[in-house]
């Protein structure tokens, strides 16, 4: 087992390459999830602001 983990003397290069690969793989999976959450939050905020603006519009027209 130790021989396999040593990768024929190239373990210093091989294991960090695996680590970088898995970090990138995890980021490629996780980044769209974060992006979707952020966009959903922004859209909900825009919709709420638009509803408030529309609710205030008739009062503004009535006062003029």
Question: Helix and strand layout, with pairings?
Answer:
Elements: H1 2-6, H2 11-63
Features:
64 residues; mainly alpha; rod-shaped
Description:
This protein is mainly alpha-helical and 64 residues long. The chain has one domain. Helices cover 91% and strands 0% of the residues. The longest helix has 53 residues, at 11-63. It is rod-shaped, with a radius of gyration of 27 Å.
Tell me how many strands there are.
0
* Overall number of domains: 1
Derived structural class: mainly alpha
N-to-C CA distance: 84 Å
Largest sheet: none
Q: Roughly what fraction of the amino acids lie in strands?
A: under 5%
Helical percentage: over 70%
**What Rg is obtained from the alpha carbons, in whole angstroms?**
27 Å
Q: Encode the helix/strand succession as letters.
A: HH
Average of pLDDT: 90
Which residue ranges are poorly predicted, with pLDDT under 50 across at least 5 consecutive positions?
none
Helix count equals: 2
Please tell me what the overall shape is: rod-shaped
Q: Quaternary state, please? A: single chain
